[in-house]
Amino acid sequence: MVEDDAAEVHVVVASPPSLFDAAVIARTLYTGLGPKGWRLYIAGLGSRLPLRLITESRIPVRVAKTSIVMDTVPSGPGPVYVVDPRGRPAWEIGEEPGLLLVDYSDMLRRPLGAKPVSTLGAPSITYEATVAIYEFFVRRRLRPAPRGRNAFSPDPRRGSYLARKLLEAVSVFDNYVVLEPSVVVYTLKRVLLAQGLIVDPAGYRVEIEPLGGSVVERIELDVYDRRLNERGRAEVVFNGSLVSVTCCGEELFRIEIDPERRVACSAPGLCVGESGGGEAWQGLPQWS
Known about the structure:
disordered C terminus; 7-stranded antiparallel β-sheet; alpha/beta; Alpha/beta knot; 288 residues
C-alpha cells in the first residue's frame, strides 16, 4: 500500500469484471470532479495503464496519466467504505470517505476495514459505485446556489426578463453548457428596444478547452438606433456561470447563471427559475 495526499478523493477498484466497468467509474470521476483532485487506483488489470481504458473512459491522456494508478492500493486517513447494495445508505452518512472501495472480488474489504455503503440497492456494483461517487464527492461539493452577488442590471424588470430568457437559452453541446444564439439574439432585440436600439447577429464563437473543461461563448451583434443608423457593436460573453452583455463599449447587464439548478440572477438577491419566481418583464416600450 502507498500513501497519497495529493488528491482529496480516493477510489479503489479491485478486480473489475471487465475493463469497461473500470472505465465507467473513471469517467464518472472525471465528469463529476474535473481533471484534478482525485485518484483512481485499479487493482487486477496489470501494472500498465491500458490504452483501451483511456479510450473507453474518454479521459484526456494527461489526466489519465496523473490520476489513474494501476495495481496499487493507497493508505491514508479517514474512514474506508466499500460499495455494497446491502450496506447503509450513503445519504445517511455525514462524513466523506477517506477511501471508497469498489471490490468485485471481496478481497480487500477486511484488510482495509471497510464499512458497507449502498445507494439505490442495485444489483450492479458498477452502477452502485457511480451513484456513491456522485453522492459523496459531487453532490455535496456543488457550489452554493447563486445569489446574484456579481450580477447587475439597470432595471429590475428588464434584468429579470433577460435572466429568465437566458435560462431558456441554456443548451448542451457535446457535454458542454452553451447558450442558443438565436434565443439570446431575439431576447436582446426586445430588451434593447427600450433604449431605442435594434441589433442583428454578426457572429458566434465558442472556445472549448477540453482538458480543463472550460467554455467561453461569444455572440457579436451589430447595433442600430431608431433611424437605423449604425451605433457600433454589442457582445454577449458566457463563461458557463456568468453572462456579460456590453453595448457600444458599456456593460449593460451581468447575469449570474446556475445551469444545474436552472436559476439565474440579474442583481443581488433577485433570482428567477424556469418554474417561476422573481419578477418578469411583461411590458414592452412603445416608440413613436
